[in-house]
Design goal:
There is one protein chain. This protein has 160 residues and is mainly beta. It has three helices and eleven strands. The strands form three sheets. Strands 2-1-11-5-6 form a five-stranded mixed β-sheet. Strands 3-4-8-9 form a four-stranded antiparallel β-sheet, with no helix packed on it. A two-stranded antiparallel sheet has the order 7-10.
Length: 160
């Protein structure tokens, strides 16, 4: 007979999930384990903020661009550079949210190495959730912990 290692009365915490929605052909629900299927990138960051001083961390994870490209954003091939009008909203479980443009992460334009980090300083983030890491930012203001939602939106019309 097998023995359970669970503590009686302890709640089992499911892995954190990211719900990816918006103008996509393949919306997704992703866990940290799912994000490990993409090529992993490692970055060392130094956040220099006036309020919290200098902080140094090492993150690993897939590029945000790679993950979102797999969801088939609804770029219109008849519109020249249509992908440049798309915005990416990232929301954390703590209520923190940031906005990025597709052009920032697109390899043909800004090529920013934005990560969906799955480890922080060697510690797996499978329970707390992936983190948005912008290594090019001097201050970590756009860093989002415990991502629970990402929305890709190209639904506004161009100026006339």
């Amino acid at each position: 007979m097998s023995q359970s290692l669970a503590v009686p009365g302890a709640a089992v915490v499911p892995p954190a999930r990211i719900v990816v929605t918006g103008d996509l052909g393949r919306p997704a629900r992703l866990t940290v384990a799912d994000l490990l299927a993409w090529p992993q990138h490692a970055v060392r960051v130094a956040f220099e903020c006036a309020t919290s001083g200098s902080r140094h961390h090492h993150f690993t994870g897939p590029l945000l661009h790679d993950v979102l490209a797999d969801t088939a954003p609804a770029f219109d091939p008849a519109r020249r550079k249509d992908r440049l009008r798309f915005l990416i909203a990232v929301h954390g479980a703590d209520g923190h949210h940031v906005l990025l443009s597709w052009a920032e992460i697109d390899p043909d334009f800004g090529r920013a190495p934005v990560l969906l980090a799955v480890t922080l300083d060697g510690t797996a983030l499978d329970r707390s959730g992936a983190q948005l890491v912008l290594p090019q930012d001097r201050c970590g203001g756009r860093h989002v912990s415990g991502i629970d939602a990402i929305r890709v939106d190209g639904g506004y019309t161009a100026w006339s």
